[in-house]
Amino acid sequence: MSRGRLITLEGGEGAGKSTLLAGLHAHLEAHGVALVLPLPREPGGTDLGEAVRAMLLDHAFRGMSPEAELLLMFAARAELVRKVIVPALAAGRWVLCDRFTDASYAYQGGGRGQPAARIRELERWAALDLQPDLTFLLDLSVEEGRARRSGRGDADRIESEEDAFFERVRAAYRARVAEEPQRFRVLDARAPAAAVLDAACAALRPLLEDRGA
Amino acid sequence: MSRGRLITLEGGEGAGKSTLLAGLHAHLEAHGVALVLPLPREPGGTDLGEAVRAMLLDHAFRGMSPEAELLLMFAARAELVRKVIVPALAAGRWVLCDRFTDASYAYQGGGRGQPAARIRELERWAALDLQPDLTFLLDLSVEEGRARRSGRGDADRIESEEDAFFERVRAAYRARVAEEPQRFRVLDARAPAAAVLDAACAALRPLLEDRGA
Question: What's the ipTM?
Fold first, then answer.
């Protein structure tokens, strides 16, 4: 039995992550891939992680220090990696995850100014240095992301940040792509949802063909 | 105005921390010390920290990874240091804290096996490398601690650990004392409460006389 694959989806608010996740979920199942369900999300994906998520998104903790935010994110991730992702990959199952460590480089690093070296060190021991096999980045300008979100309900603690914060997040995501271009597939979130999904499925083809099935 | 002082109290379960804290609180107030009230406790002491504390002590999270536990402890500590302790010390107030970073070396280090170097690194950036001016360690054998606790209500997630865990905790506390004997005052928890308090107050005298008041 071959090892499973870790596929992660990253992107700013309003970029269409939920729609793409649903499409990828259907595509992978149609190809006979055994996926971990429900699809894990970050922060979250475990009982502890979901409890941490509720704290991270709660407006009551608006003044949370960037250091506490970073530590909470990695506490949730430490659980997710050990309790869900690593056992699943070892059992040959695939994991399609709504955000992963790249999001900490983008949000807690770019957004909140936590040093990349600090995040890297946490990635090593708290997240077992686990690297995705493929990462999709849904890229969208901050203005368009804000316009798309405006029709939704109340924004959470992080969604309520100002534009400059999301500009830094976007720049940090792009810097990640520049560092590891072979791992990332950047998708233009302005394209029609079907075109975005087609591009993502094309990028998955080599992994699907590589299963030896 | 002189900088305030950080006094911490450490020790295993059932060692008499609460009684000693109450006595030290009264003693310091009788000497005109402006204390942060309520006395901070770890994990806790801020809104976020108390929410994290509830998670850490909850039996629902019995299988929490040692890494997640360590990260949650420092998330709470990062908040406490920045929101409570550092501002108070700068304003000339004293902080009498029920446990601090030594407890992570003892519980997450000795008890759970997290490397001391990892804790040291978190102490540097998450806890701003803040060191107590004086630390009391209420020392008690694991057997006696267990006997004293037996009359209380239900034990929380950490109190429910086995004896070997608490032996490692005690050994790690003693190792901390050996590394920084000038900062610690070890108190024999088997002594009568009044004698323990007298010994602690004697150790506080130089700090009280040093106020220049």
Answer: 0.94
